[in-house]
Design brief:
Blueprint lengths: L7 H15 L4 H25 L22 H4 L12
Length: 89
């Protein structure tokens, strides 16, 4: 989204604004809480991935292994009609 427009100077300006808003004494606590939040988020994402079934279908359930495939539709098995008549040389 930002592409090449976001440079090092932009990062310096953002850090200065954060420093002015929160003050130097509060920055270590802010960084610690952000780190804890990221750690919790990563552990939740990992646990959600571990809980997911291998390959859910459209309803969100895993079909049993003995389930037969669905019957093909009549349109798929019917012979195809040519749309254009053959060209005679």
């Amino acid at each position: 989204m930002f592409g090449n427009a976001f440079t090092g100077w932009h990062l310096v300006i953002i850090l200065l604004i954060v420093l002015l808003l929160f003050g130097a004494p509060k920055l270590p606590g802010l960084a610690r809480s952000v780190g804890q939040s990221m750690r919790i988020f990563k552990s939740e994402v990992k646990s959600m991935r571990d809980d997911e079934p291998a390959s859910p279908d459209a309803t969100g359930t895993v079909p049993p292994a003995s389930a037969a495939p669905a019957d093909p539709t009549p349109a798929a098995t019917a012979p195809q009609k040519p749309t254009d008549p053959p060209v005679k040389p």
